[in-house]
Amino acid sequence: MGTCRAVPGVRAVGFTRNVSAAATPESTPKEGAAPVKMLAEMFSIAPGNKDHHPALRCAVGVFVPLITLVLLGRLDLAIFASFGAFTGIYGRGEPHAVRFVLQLRAGLLMLLVILLAALAARMGPAWGLDAAAHTWLLVLATTLVAGGCSVTISWLRLRPAGSLFHIFAFAAIASIPNQPPLWQGMLVAVLTTVFALLIGFSSRILPSHRTPWARPPRIRRTPAEKRTAWLEGFGYLVAAGLAGSLATWAGGRLGFGHNYWAMVAAVVPLVGHTTRHRVRRGIQRIIGTVLGLLVLAAVLLVGLQPWQTVLVMALCQFGAEMFIIRQYLVAQVFVTPLALVSTLLVVPTSASILLRDRIIETVIGAAVGIAVVLAPGAWRRLRRRPEQGPTAA
């Protein structure tokens, strides 16, 4: 979880470069140099840039709403607060006015996704669908959310790019079997979003941190940017749809669940400037998840009380934001327990099953995502390969 600062006219493209750009020295390094360089980049950590400021904002934005729900005895609403708090991850490092506008746009989009998810959860019983049919319906709906939100995020020039958080929010909420009253869930989500907006410009109280309150310039999209947005959306649609379908099909036969974790992992490699960068992110997702599961196992052995669980979530949120830009692998060590602890907080289940499902779904999703990243380049090379004619006698 984290952001890159938006630069007018410059986009951090993911899938699109593979679709429309020719191979570059970065994407096709010299033989022998690529593995060494990728390994070095895999574990290198970039220098910090006051990362503790956004990390602290995000941690507070998660902790206060969740601890309030713990005190009220309404943990069934915790997932609505968790995703409403995602508003705070946008606008990282921006001046206060720009950050407020970006977070307002991101918050409204997330609230729409949360509302659609809560409605989708009620569609199965309302339409008389069995569990299998409802699962496939949610895969289809989540796939549409993946593509649609990716285009919207690109259109609004929000960072972090892509629809990873919206896939996670939609599928996680839509998968809850016992939904709380719709108005209560949405009220918690709205209040949490407003709280995140307040935290976003709270540092203006300090003169040393105050930035000019200037209205951000109007977004002007070039034809190339519009084309890029649609192509990226198509990439997210393909990756999420393939991963969700494969995970649902395999899970039905092998007995594991949480297919949306595969959909989330599948879109991770789609963000990046080069093919090597995107493939590296997919591998880092797998390694970081394994390490994060070890951390989670240690946390579960302690047997935390609900308020302690919320504190762990806030600490994990802080750690994730500290490293998300500097080292994606390390960030995943914090993101993994954060995601699973929030799941356990709302829908208690067997820890061993949860750990098993997470690693299997992550491997499936990351593999699909990497395949989607590599497929356009492989297709271009195949088309360029000269046809083999008959050899002269």
**Extended strand count:** 0
Radius of gyration based on Cα positions:
21 Å
**Beta strand %:** under 5%
Overall pLDDT score: 84
Low-confidence stretches: 1-29
Count of discrete alpha- or pi-helical segments spanning 4 or more residues: 15
Share in helix: 55-70%
Largest sheet data: none
By secondary-structure content and strand pairing, the structural class works out as mainly alpha
Give the ordered list of helices and strands.
HHHHHHHHHHHHHHH
Shape: globular
Distance between the termini: 62 Å
How would you explain this protein's 3D organization?
The protein has one domain (33-210, 222-380). It has 15 helices and no strands. It has helices spanning 15-20, 33-43, 52-72, 78-84, 96-121, 123-127, 131-156, 164-174, 182-200, 223-254, 260-267, 275-302, 306-323, 328-346, 351-384.
Compact overview of the structure:
The protein has helices spanning 15-20, 33-43, 52-72, 78-84, 96-121, 123-127, 131-156, 164-174, 182-200, 223-254, 260-267, 275-302, 306-323, 328-346, 351-384. It is mostly helical. Helix 3 (52-72) packs antiparallel against helix 13 (306-323) and helix 5 runs antiparallel to helix 7.
Supply the key terms:
393 residues, mainly alpha, disordered N terminus
Summarize the helices and strands and which ones pair or pack.
Layout: H1 15-20, H2 33-43, H3 52-72, H4 78-84, H5 96-121, H6 123-127, H7 131-156, H8 164-174, H9 182-200, H10 223-254, H11 260-267, H12 275-302, H13 306-323, H14 328-346, H15 351-384
Helix pairs in contact: 2-12, 3-9, 3-13, 4-9, 5-7, 5-8, 5-9, 7-8, 7-10, 8-11, 10-11, 10-15, 11-15, 12-14, 12-15, 13-14
